[in-house]
Design goal:
The complex is a heterodimer of chains A (140) and B (189).
Chain A lengths: L1 H21 L5 H8 L5 H22 L20 H17 L3 H9 L5 H18 L6
Helix pairs in contact in A: 1-5, 2-4, 5-6
Chain B lengths: L1 H5 L4 H17 L8 H9 L17 H20 L10 H9 L18 H4 L2 H21 L3 H10 L3 H26 L2
The chains are: A mainly alpha (140), B mainly alpha (189).
Chain lengths: 140, 189
Amino acid sequence: MLLKRGFKYMMVGILFGFVLTKAEVVSWYRIFEMFRFQAFHMYGVIGAAVVLGVLVVQLVKRKQMSDVRGEKIKFTDKRMGYKNYLLGGTIFGLGWALTGACPGPSYILLGAGYPVFIVIILSAVLGTFVYGLLRNKLPH
Amino acid sequence: MNNFLTTSWEWYVAGPLITLTMFLLLYFGKSFGISSTLRTMCAIGGAGKVADFFRFDWRSQIWNLLFVVGTIIGGFLAHIVFKNPEPVQLSADTLQLLTDLEVDLPKAGALIPANLFSWESLFTLRGFIMMVGGGFLVGFGTRYAGGCTSGHAISGLSNLQLPSLIAVIGFFIGGLVMTYFLLPLILAL
């Protein structure tokens, strides 16, 4: 039952993994090239996704579109603030440029034949755990 | 068709398909964001016993773990079944810089530099910093920022969220500091 309901999410995941691999977004080389501003490719991928994404979200809101269960699609606004976004974002950016992989690509690379990325994923789980421990002491 | 499946894809093909991914998840009543699966795994592992942050109904997040399983299959299909015979086509400037930094250049079938990311490399100081240290920063930073590239750069910016823009600016501050200043030092280890 769970698998039957969950199958569609897996199918969307397959699409996403396939696209990110074909566009080489999962490649450490592409991330390095992006942060050195030596190619347009990555900016094109993210830029096109966001510009089209803004249009899609506007359309969903204006048409008050419903999801597959017939409930109106809702968007939750992010909590306002800047400290955690800027500090956390910067820490993540350091790790992104080191590993060449944000969380999605770390998983995708496992399937693409790089089992060593399990180390990066487990370290990321540990990082998340440590954040959870320190959360109340950090500026947000 | 087969050619389309084995060559690399241009940005104008990939970008819209990423938007499609986000839309499909919205249509299925979910929101696109991958780093939260790291928190889910902590919760499944029992981290709720030591921190409130992990005390939530992780069963409601199983869909995202199934999505992740799909991404792994997608990577397998794209890189192993429909293998691209060409190496990653980097700019000439990037190739020169990689040569100067003594990083393996892209070869056919290699998405990542083998001399940096491998089991052998893991047991060197450089490899340990890049994989264990880098992974830790990714996990800590994404949760502190409340999202990663999918949750903030794609979902958040698409919904015109100012916090997501601040987070993405942070991604770039960190990425630029690492790439320009720290990475050359780490690669020299």
